[in-house]
């Protein structure tokens, strides 16, 4: 830590309560009041160093030679700083540190303690020391924190801007190259340690959990102790110097966890957080609204999980509508990166539904709108035996990912008896048809809704079933739907019809293959008898398909009402299990 001792005389002052006395033996001829403190001093040491005090003493000294009384209530730093100034004027040793140099520099400027009033005066001394402070990361952080106490004077003297610039330069550089002492996960002032845990996302979990800073995030913890206005200025300066937006997003996430601790309530048991003094909800609300505007605007830079948690916290704190809309828009733009469990946002409004489906619907609409405006055309879907196959890049398209996510979300919220049919349909219909190569997911959600709402009318059942395309059901889903007593008769007939068409197509294909294999003139049939068993196998398969087709016709005629459990079939469809926290307790018969 940088420090400097000024003066050489031994201590010649003592304090009695709020009174500060000089013990030189000379009678005091000037009393200076700073707040509740009174300093009984001598004119000459003061006016010989300060232009302001020289004028005030000259103007205020009574003609009868009585003690002159002055008031300096506006001096930067108050009585504590003026005590150091007085010692300096009397030549008593004082120690300059990163904690007091800013207030002393401002007080020296206020008192006009320039070299015009003695060589080596306090203005020059503190300015020289400040330049040393700016060369050190830890001291710069300490000095910047103390600027809060004298914010206006520090701003006028450009101390804040110079301090911020020095920190920005160091944050954007590799500290190991310059051997800068850094906080290493400790508060520059308190020395509080952070938890040392494995990194999940460059030092911060996707949920915003604070971990011990290392590598590129070595400066996060020290910066998190700054007030929000100073932190914003630091982030702006760092961004202006070209730091990666991902690192800036991480720094803001780290700061948010510390200053909006309400988010910590959503952290799981294995995600420990730092214990800090809890600000009031009003303070957290104000901080959150500022932080939302501080997050980088580029898509994908901020983890969607963190944005969703921030949105939930904004709802709890009743943050401004603009802040909530900002977060919904950011999440909607990258909804394909969201996880189902994070979309299950508890309802904070006046609606009776368990989850905030209105909010999710707005984010879905934002995603679809952004995708369509960008002119993103989905890759052709590939379906093999009822299963979705990834495209050539090995990845599903964002629209398909969101469609799967939405279908899963609908299945989670469908058991809510207060979920209106119109709202369920609005969410399902918000996804364009091309985004669903298969409609198994939306069929499963419809089935869950019909089971949880047995009182809806036949007309409403017909209407909700229009959300799915029977031609886009897999073989397993079609088989399940054909035996589903909750579906309207018209839908069952459609399912059986399209399944029969599919079987006919399959049969035609097998016959074509069979004829080619049994044809001795086939250029690929040179092995003769070796291909005959394969032809017999094909004919056997065709026979099986014909039997299956006949069984489906019988199902159509008899309209069998199957009452057996569908548990094994649902497992065959390989539907993902619901998260335990959202699974209805009364769900006895698994729906499709």
From TrEMBL:
Keywords: Ubl conjugation pathway
UniProt keyword Coiled coil, yes or no: no
Biological process annotations from GO: protein ubiquitination
PROSITE patterns listed in its UniProt record: BTB, NPH3
Domain NPH3: 217-502
Keyword Zinc-finger annotated: no
Occurrences of domain BTB (ranges): 28-98
Pfam families listed in its UniProt record: BTB (PF00651), NPH3 (PF03000)
Functional pathway: Protein modification; protein ubiquitination
Domain of life of the organism encoding this protein: Eukaryota
Family per record: Belongs to the NPH3 family.
Protein name: BTB domain-containing protein
Source organism: Arabis nemorensis
């Amino acid at each position: 830590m940088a420090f400097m001792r000024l003066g050489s005389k031994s201590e010649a002052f003592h304090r009695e309560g709020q009174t500060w006395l000089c013990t030189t033996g000379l009678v005091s001829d000037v009393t200076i009041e700073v707040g509740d403190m009174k300093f009984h001093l001598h004119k000459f040491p003061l006016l010989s160093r300060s232009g302001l005090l020289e004028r005030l003493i000259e103007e205020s000294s009574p003609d009868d030679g009585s003690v002159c009384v002055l008031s300096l209530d506006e001096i930067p730093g108050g009585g504590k700083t003026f005590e150091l100034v007085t010692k300096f004027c009397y030549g008593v040793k004082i120690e300059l540190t990163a904690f007091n140099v800013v207030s002393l520099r401002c007080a020296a400027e206020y008192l006009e303690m320039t070299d015009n009033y003695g060589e080596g005066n306090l203005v020059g001394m503190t300015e020289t020391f400040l330049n040393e402070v700016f060369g050190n990361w830890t001291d710069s952080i300490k000095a910047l924190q103390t600027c809060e106490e004298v914010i206006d004077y520090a701003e006028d003297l450009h101390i804040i801007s110079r301090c911020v610039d020095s920190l920005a330069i160091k944050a954007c550089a590799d500290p190991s190259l310059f051997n800068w002492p850094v906080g290493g996960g400790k508060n520059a002032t308190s020395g509080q340690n952070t938890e040392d845990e494995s990194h999940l996302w460059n030092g911060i979990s996707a949920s915003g959990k604070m971990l011990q800073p290392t590598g590129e995030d070595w400066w996060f913890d020290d910066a998190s102790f700054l007030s929000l206005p100073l932190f914003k200025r630091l982030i702006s300066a760092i961004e202006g110097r070209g730091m990666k937006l991902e690192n800036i997003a991480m720094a803001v996430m780290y700061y948010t966890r510390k200053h909006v601790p309400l988010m910590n309530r959503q952290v799981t048991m294995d995600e420990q957080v730092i214990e800090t003094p809890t600000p009031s909800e009003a303070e957290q609300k104000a901080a959150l609204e500022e932080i939302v505007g501080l997050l980088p605007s580029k898509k994908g830079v901020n983890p969607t999980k963190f944005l969703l948690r921030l949105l939930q916290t904004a709802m709890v704190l009743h943050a401004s509508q603009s802040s909530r809309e900002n977060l919904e828009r950011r999440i909607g733009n990258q909804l394909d990166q969201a996880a189902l469990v994070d979309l299950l946002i508890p309802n904070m409004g006046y609606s009776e539904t368990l989850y905030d489906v209105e909010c999710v619907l707005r984010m879905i609409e934002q995603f679809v709108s952004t995708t369509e405006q960008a002119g993103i055309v989905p890759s052709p879907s590939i379906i093999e035996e009822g299963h979705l196959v990834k495209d050539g890049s090995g990845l599903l398209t964002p629209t398909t990912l969101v469609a799967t996510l939405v279908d899963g979300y609908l299945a989670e919220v469908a058991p809510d008896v207060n979920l209106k049919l119109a709202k369920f349909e609005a969410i399902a219909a918000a996804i364009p048809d091309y985004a669903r190569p298969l409609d198994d997911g939306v069929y499963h959600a419809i089935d869950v809704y019909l089971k949880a709402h047995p009182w809806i009318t036949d007309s409403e059942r017909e209407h909700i079933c229009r959300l799915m395309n029977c031609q886009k059901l897999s073989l397993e889903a079609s088989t399940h739907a054909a035996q589903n007593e909750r579906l309207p008769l018209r839908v069952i007939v459609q399912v059986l019809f399209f399944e029969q068409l599919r079987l006919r197509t399959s049969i035609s294909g097998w016959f074509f293959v069979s004829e080619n294999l049994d044809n001795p003139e086939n250029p690929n049939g040179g092995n003769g008898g070796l291909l005959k068993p394969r032809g017999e196998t094909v004919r056997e398969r065709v026979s099986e398909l014909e039997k299956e087709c006949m069984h489906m016709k019988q199902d159509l005629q008899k309209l069998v009402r199957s009452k057996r459990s569908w548990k094994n079939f649902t497992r065959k469809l390989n539907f993902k299990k619901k998260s335990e926290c959202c699974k209805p307790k009364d769900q006895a018969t698994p729906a499709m």
